[in-house]
Design goal:
The structure holds two protein chains of two kinds. By secondary structure, chain A is mostly helical. Helix content of chain A is 51%, strand content 7%. Chain A has one domain. Chain B contains twelve helices and eleven strands. In chain B, the strands form three sheets. In chain B, strands 3, 4, 5, 6, 7, 10 and 11 form a seven-stranded mixed beta sheet that branches. A two-stranded antiparallel sheet of chain B has the order 1-2. Chain B is globular and about 65 Å long. The chains are: A mainly alpha, B alpha+beta.
């Protein structure tokens, strides 16, 4: 999965709804829509290792690497914050 | 949606109702407004009024794939303040937004505050007193206020569109509380909207649109049809996130004037399509580029809808030189099945 960092937790929650909380998420700083072609390409290239990891690592290794992120997935109580949880 | 039975006590009815509201709020079951407690008796009554079984599955609501059974919908309809007899309309609305080609999952999670808008046609409008006249999009009518709210509560509680958890909506929208009215068929000089979509006049139908905004267009009183349409067109500019089309709720005065001038709905669609356009220099390049790719622009101009048929025309509201423009598209119509 590839996302901009602002939406990383949303992305993992969405993945969790499909029963895949343990996924490698390749991130890049938000936003990207203003970037020129070359800058966007550089961002994409920087994410490639994450994509390769997601496609090639054994599931047990991915689970080990992402377990701490999955534990943070569900907010405590009912979130009513101006800051995305 | 997990079933939970809660017992609360209070020294007075008012205190008990307040505690019920506060408890529901703390659980995250509300839209922030007070709710009616969904007691087992009330839910049973609402299920019975639907004419269906409690465990009949109406839809799987994204992103959580929550199972919107009749019972789960009934719980939310009770909480929203619906009457039991509204259930067939609430169910038809949820069926509409669950159409495979309706972008509900996107709408549930995107940063854009797009929301369903529901247009109701047919006899059910009068049977349930769903307002289609004066003030039809504002406060004051129970059916309008609570049917849309029931759907919203289902989208939150069953679908899981909790802002900040699954929903990334940056601002949200007041339209997300309840966005619904009926068509003023009696003062529509043309065919009702649902008849245009292939239903019989005596059918009761809910049409769900993907909607992005609300814009009241004032003016154009006592002038000819060209001026009326120009006034409307220049107030429905191309807008980001408002793609797919336009729903124009023509006010009854303008509908009558345009009809008396000999215009058909098709004429109105065509003329608005031709008029609702602006020079490309008016827009940011990124926006005009997107619109060009979507068939709503060329090298010099950006226009509001890709084709005249994507300007949907209905008649609503009370007397006055007012119309409503909603950036809206992907209409999905569903029959309201009586209990």
């Amino acid at each position: 999965m590839i996302v901009t960092d602002t939406f990383s937790k949303f992305a993992r929650r969405m993945s969790a709804t499909q029963d895949f909380p343990y996924v490698v998420i390749a991130e890049t700083p938000n936003p990207i829509r203003q970037l020129e072609h070359d800058a966007l390409r550089a961002r994409a290239e920087a994410m490639i290792q994450g994509v390769i990891d997601g496609l090639t690592l054994p599931p047990a290794e991915i689970e080990k690497r992402t377990a701490h992120l999955v534990k943070q997935l569900n907010p405590q109580g009912v979130p009513r914050s101006s800051v995305p949880v | 949606m997990t079933q939970t039975e809660v017992r609360l006590e209070g020294d007075s009815i008012a205190e008990l109702l307040t505690r019920g509201y506060e408890y529901a709020y703390e659980q995250g079951w509300t839209d922030g407004l007070p709710i009616i407690p969904a007691t087992a008796e009330a839910v049973k009554k609402f299920v019975a009024a639907s004419g269906r079984k409690a465990n009949d599955l109406i839809a799987s609501l994204p992103p959580r794939k929550g199972q919107a059974t009749v019972e789960a919908i009934a719980v939310n309809a009770v909480m929203a303040g619906c009457k039991a007899e509204y259930m067939p309309v609430v169910i038809a609305a949820i069926e509409g937004i669950s159409d495979p080609t309706y972008p509900l999952e996107l709408m549930q999670v995107t940063t854009n505050p797009m929301t369903p808008f529901f247009l109701v046609n047919g006899p059910v409008r009068d049977q349930l007193e769903i307002n289609y006249g004066t003030g039809c999009l504002g406060p004051g009518w129970r059916a309008n206020s609570t049917i849309g709210r029931a759907v919203r509560l289902a989208l939150i509680n069953v679908g899981g569109a909790l802002p900040g958890v699954y929903s990334k909506t940056s601002f949200g929208s007041p339209l997300r509380y309840s966005y619904i009215c009926a068509e003023n068929e009696a003062e529509n000089p043309w065919t009702p909207f649902h008849v245009d979509r292939g239903f019989n006049k005596d059918d009761s139908v809910v049409t769900a649109f993907k909607a992005s905004n609300f814009c009241n267009i004032s003016g154009g009183e006592g002038v000819g049809p060209e001026e009326i349409l120009r006034q409307i067109a220049t107030n429905m500019p191309p807008m980001y996130g408002g793609g797919d089309g336009v729903l124009l709720l023509l006010g009854v005065n303008h509908a009558q004037s345009l009809h008396e001038a000999g215009l058909t709905k098709r004429d109105i669609q065509q003329q608005l399509w031709e008029l609702a356009r602006l020079p490309i220099s008016h827009f940011a390049e990124a926006f005009s580029s997107t619109e060009r790719k979507a068939g709503r622009g060329d090298d010099t101009t950006v226009w509001r809808a890709a084709k005249p048929e994507e300007i949907y025309v209905a008649v609503a509201g009370g007397p006055g030189p007012q119309n409503v423009y909603i950036g809206a598209g992907t209409p999905k119509s569903r029959l309201v099945k009586p209990a």
